[in-house]
Amino acid sequence: MKGLMQDWPLLCHKIIDHAATYHGEREIVSRSVEGPMHRTNYRAIGNRARQVAKRLEKDGIAFGDRVATMAWNTWRHMEVWYGILGLGAVYHTLNPRLFPDQIAWIMNDAEDRLLFVDLTFLPVVEAVADKVASLEKVVVLTDAAHMPDTKIKNAVAYEEWVSEVDSDFAWRDFDETTAAGMCYTSGTTGDPKGVVYSHRSNVLHAMAAAQPDMLNLSSRDRMMPVVPFFHANGWSTAFVCPMVGSTMVLPGAGMDGESIYQILTEERVTMTAAVPTVWLMLLQHLEKVGGALPDLENVVIGGSACPRAITQAFQDKYGVNVIHAWGMTEMSPLGTLCSIKPDYAHLEGDDKLDLQAKQGHPPFTVEMKVTDDDNNALPWDGETFGRLKVRGPAISSSYYKGRGAEQFDEENWFDTGDVAHIDKHGYMEITDRAKDVIKSGGEWISSIELENLAVGHEDVAEAAVIGIAHPKWDERPLLVIVRKEGREPGKEDILGFMRDKIAKWWMPDDVAFVDEIPHTATGKIQKTVLRDQFKDFRFPDT
Amino acid sequence: MKGLMQDWPLLCHKIIDHAATYHGEREIVSRSVEGPMHRTNYRAIGNRARQVAKRLEKDGIAFGDRVATMAWNTWRHMEVWYGILGLGAVYHTLNPRLFPDQIAWIMNDAEDRLLFVDLTFLPVVEAVADKVASLEKVVVLTDAAHMPDTKIKNAVAYEEWVSEVDSDFAWRDFDETTAAGMCYTSGTTGDPKGVVYSHRSNVLHAMAAAQPDMLNLSSRDRMMPVVPFFHANGWSTAFVCPMVGSTMVLPGAGMDGESIYQILTEERVTMTAAVPTVWLMLLQHLEKVGGALPDLENVVIGGSACPRAITQAFQDKYGVNVIHAWGMTEMSPLGTLCSIKPDYAHLEGDDKLDLQAKQGHPPFTVEMKVTDDDNNALPWDGETFGRLKVRGPAISSSYYKGRGAEQFDEENWFDTGDVAHIDKHGYMEITDRAKDVIKSGGEWISSIELENLAVGHEDVAEAAVIGIAHPKWDERPLLVIVRKEGREPGKEDILGFMRDKIAKWWMPDDVAFVDEIPHTATGKIQKTVLRDQFKDFRFPDT
Ligand SMILES: Nc1ncnc2c1ncn2[C@@H]1O[C@H](COP(=O)(O)OP(=O)(O)OP(=O)(O)O)[C@@H](O)[C@H]1O
Ligand SMILES: Nc1ncnc2c1ncn2[C@@H]1O[C@H](COP(=O)(O)OP(=O)(O)OP(=O)(O)O)[C@@H](O)[C@H]1O
Ligand SMILES: [Mg+2]
Ligand SMILES: [Mg+2]
C-alpha cells in the first residue's frame, strides 16, 4: 500500500523560492571583492538567480553540465549557485588554494564547461585555463568598470553578461536524485576525491542542520559563514540560511582577524562558522585591540579538532558559546555537532570543556558506528576507538568515477578514514585519522591527542605528531613543534609538561623544532608532506 | 547526471532507532489509564516497539495491513505506533469521540484487522466491534490484572499478548512512499475523509516541524502533547519528539484543567500543544486556584482560531509564549506557525496580539497561495481573501478511495476549503471556511471574524455565526451566543459592543441565545448541525 501524499521532489532551488517568498526582505550583506559593502535581499537573489539560469542557457549550458565557481562568499556566489541549480546544471566549487596543477586536474576530471571567478583568483585561472579543454567561458564576478585585462580567452564581466537577459525563467523540474553539485575533498590524506551531491541530499542535509540541537538557525539569526562555500559544500550554509530565512553576512575576501572582527561587530552577527585557524586569528586580534563580541551568541568550529584554548577563550572571555562540529565533504558535510544534551547539562568548568572537545552527536539522518579492522562493532564506552563508519541520505555512496571503492561496503556504511570512540550518550570523539594513527607494539597512539596536549604548553604555537619507524615497536611518535614568536622552549620543557598527563608509553620519543608545519588548502596539517620531510629521521637510540 | 549519495529511505521507524541510540535515557512520562504515573525511556520504547512488531507478525499482520488504535497519549500508544510502522503495516488512529456508526464506517472503510484500545474506550468498541467484518482481534492496552470482562470476541490484554515474544526483530526495509498511517479528517464540514500518510511524508514533516521558527524542539525540551495522537496525526509529536530527543510528557486520559495543571507543574513541562478549548479549561482552573506556570515556555494552539483572550492571558498573566498554528489532517498536519520574524519584531501590545491572531507562516516544504474562484492568484496584501491552496511533500495528493477529487488540481495544489488572506511577509490569516463564509450581496463576510469579536464581550462564553437566507442579500449573518454563567446580556448589549469595530454591512442582522453550541469530536463548532437547527429561522423584517 502506498501513501497518498504529493510527489513534491526535494529540489534545491525551491529553497531560494521559499526564502524569496517568506523572507524576501531579509538581507544578504557582503563585503564585495571590489571593496565596499553590498546589501541585497532574498527576493533580489531569487530574481537574479533566475536571470543567471536564463543566461547560462543562452550560453548552451544544459541539464547535467558542470559549472565551476572559484569565489569568495558573496551575494554573487549565491546568485550563481542557485542559477546553476535551477537549470539542472551542477555547481562545482573549486578551492583556489590548491596547486594550479591540482586545480587543472580537478576541472578536467569534472569537465567544467564554464567558470565563475572572483577578481582575486584571476591569476590562478590564468595559470590553468589553457590546460582545461572543456572550459568554454570564464565569467569574472565583477562589473565592466572593474574588469581587468586578462589573457584568458572568452572572459567576460558578470554584470554585463547577466544583464543580457531578464529574470523571466521557470525553474526546471526533475528527479530529486539529480546531481546538484560537486566538491572535491580537501586532499589531506592524498589526492582530492570528487563528491557528487544530489538535490535530495542537499535539501535533507539542510533540514537536519537547521534543528535546535544542530545549527539552531532561525529567521532572527544573522549568520556569517566564514567557512568558504568551496570548503566541503560551504558547510551547507548557502542552503540552511535561506531555508530558515536567516540574514546572511558574507565576509568576501576579508579573512584576517581585523576584517572578521569589523564585520562581526558592524553587522551584529549572532552566529558564525569556520575552521580553528580563523578563530585563532580573530582571538589574537581581539586580544591586541581589547575587543568584545556583544552580539555574537554562537560560533561553530570544525574541519579540524577545536583546541580547548579556543573554546575557553570564546566562552570565558567573550561569552560566546562554542559548538564543535565534525564533518566531511562526503557528508554534505555535517556529521556531528557538540550541543549539550540533558545528560550532560550538569557539567561545568573543565568537565564541560572536556565534553566540548568531543565532536558531538549526529542529527537524525546520520547513523554512526565504530568497528575494528574486521568490521566488528565496538562498544560505546567513550574509550574503545576504532574505524568510524557512517550511513545516511546525505552521505556519499561512491566517489566520482568510482574511485576509493574500498571505503564503501555492501550495507552502505562509508568508512570515514577517521578513528574515533563514542560514549554511551552517543557523543563521538575523533582520536585520529586511520592513516595518521601511530601503531606502537600492536597498540594505537592518537596523534591528535598528543598534539592537543602539546599546544596547551604556553610556548607552543603549533604541534604535529607523526609515526617514525622503530625497530622494536614498529612505530613511535615524533613530536614536531613550531615555537611561539620570541619563545625558546627546549625538548625537555615540553616533554616535562606532557609527562603524567598521558600514559607513559604514549610519550613522544623525540621532539623536533621547525619554523613551519605544512598545511592543506583548507588549513589542516598535511601529514603526508610532514612524513616526507622526516622520512630519513631516526630516533637517537635506534 | 545523478548524485552519488546513499539511497537511505526516509522510514519512520528510523526515528525511534535514532532516539533509542542518541537519547536512550530521555524519559517518556505518562499518566497511565489505570491511574499511576508511568516512566520509561526511548531505549525501552524502541525495544518494546520491536516486540510489538514481532507479536503482530505472529498474529499474521503483514506489510500494508491496517492496524487501528483508539487510545490516549501514553507510552503504550507510542510502542504500538512504532511497532506497526516497523513492520510495514499501517497505523490507523481512531477518534473515540465520533458516533459509533461513524467509527464503524471508518473502520470498515480502512479494513482494520486489529485494534489496540484503551480501557476507557472499551464501551465504544463493544458497540462497534460486531459491525466491522475485517476486525480479527482487539488488544486492550492494559495488563491481566486490569483486564475487565468484555463481550468482545478475541479481546486480549496487551501486556500478556506482547510478552509472548521477545524484542529480537529486524525492522522491515521498504520504499519510503509506502503507506505509514491513516487518519480521517475531523468531519466538521461533512463526513470524515481518509488521509494516508507515507513514511516519507511523516519524516519530512517532522524534520520541518522541529525547526527553530516552527516547534523549535530540542533535546532539552519537556514536551507535552495534549492534542491526542488521534487528532490530525497527533500534530506529529510522536515523530518530532523522538527525532530531536525531547522528553515526552503524556497526559493519558486526564484532559481537564486540574489534571493538565498538575502534570504541567509536576513534570516541569516546557512546551505543550492543544486546541483552544483545552486551554480555556486550564486558564479557568489557574484563575480559580491562583496557579502559576514557571517552567512552561511555549504553548502551541491550533485546530481552531485561537481567541485573543487566550493568547493575552498566557503571555501577560503567566509569561508563556503563545504559538498559534494552523494545520489540517491532510497536511500531516502543520501548515503554518505564528513565530515572529524580524519583520515584525518591533510589535508590542495590541499590535503583537493582532499578529498572533494570524495563523502564521509555513516552513520550507509548504507552498501556499490564495485564489479567487477561477483559480487566479490574489495579491498578498493582508486583506484580499480567497481560497487557500497548498502544495508540499507532506500534503495529500488524494483521499482514500479517491473521494473528494475536486479538491486536487493537476498542478498538485490542494484546496484546503479554508478562506484566507496572506500579507507581504507571508503571514496567513484564516477568515473562514469556504462553506461557512456568508455571501451577502455578492461580497463575503467572515464568520470567524464576527465570532472572535463577539467573544471579546465579557458576558459571552461562546459565539457562532451562520448565514441565513435573505430575500434581498442572498445571505445575512445570524449571531448565535452562549452566555457566561450568571450573565444576562441582551441583543443590543452585544451588537452595541460590536458596532464601530467592523464595517456596517458586516453587522449581524440578529442575535440568538442558546444553551449550547454543537461541537465536533475535535472540539470545533459544528456549523452543519447549527445551520440545521436554525433552518427555519427568518430575520424579523423578512
Ligand atoms: N571537528 C573535527 N575534529 C577533528 N577532525 C575533523 C573535524 N572536522 C573535520 N575533521 C577532519 O576533516 C575530515 C574531512 O575533511 P575534508 O572533507 O575537508 O577533507 P580531508 O579528509 O581533509 O581530505 P581528503 O579526504 O582528501 O584526505 C574528517 O574526516 C576529519 O578527519
Ligand atoms: N489555527 C486555526 N485557525 C483557524 N482554523 C483552524 C486552525 N487550525 C485548524 N483550523 C481549521 O481546521 C481545519 C483542519 O481540521 P481537521 O483536519 O481536523 O478536520 P476538519 O477540516 O475540521 O474536518 P473535515 O475536513 O472533515 O470537515 C482547517 O482546514 C481549518 O479550517
Ligand atoms: Mg577525507
Ligand atoms: Mg477539513
Please provide a written account of the structure:
The structure is a homodimer of 542-residue chains. Chain A has helices spanning 13-22, 42-58, 75-87, 100-110, 122-128, 158-162, 199-209, 237-244, 257-266, 276-289, 308-318, 349-357, 447-454, 491-498, 527-533, and strands at 27-31, 37-41, 66-70, 90-93, 114-117, 137-140, 155-157, 179-184, 194-198, 222-225, 247-250, 271-274, 298-302, 321-327, 334-337, 367-371, 386-391, 414-422, 428-433, 438-440, 443-445, 460-470, 474-483, 510-513. The relative contact order of chain A is 0.09. In chain A, a hairpin with a 2-residue loop joins strand 20 and strand 21 (443-445). The first copy, chain A, is built from 15 helices and 24 strands. The first copy, chain A, is of the alpha/beta class and 542 residues long. Chain A folds into three domains: 13-202 and 232-244, ANL, N-terminal domain (Rossmann fold, 3-Layer(aba) Sandwich); 255-392 and 405-435, ANL, N-terminal domain (Rossmann fold, 3-Layer(aba) Sandwich), CATH 3.40.50.12780; 438-533, GMP Synthetase, Chain A, domain 3 (2-Layer Sandwich). In chain A, helix 1 (13-22) runs antiparallel to helix 2 (42-58) and helix 4 (100-110) crosses helix 5. In chain A, the strands form five sheets. In chain A, strands 2-1-11-10-12-13-14-15 form an eight-stranded mixed beta sheet, with helices on both faces. Chain A has a seven-stranded mixed beta sheet with strand order 7-6-5-3-4-8-9, sandwiched between helices. At the A-B interface, helix 1, strand 9 and helix 7 of A face helix 1, strand 9 and helix 7 of B. Bound molecules: adenosine-5'-triphosphate (2 copies) and magnesium ion (2 copies). Residues 185, 328, 417 of chain B line the site of one magnesium ion (MG).
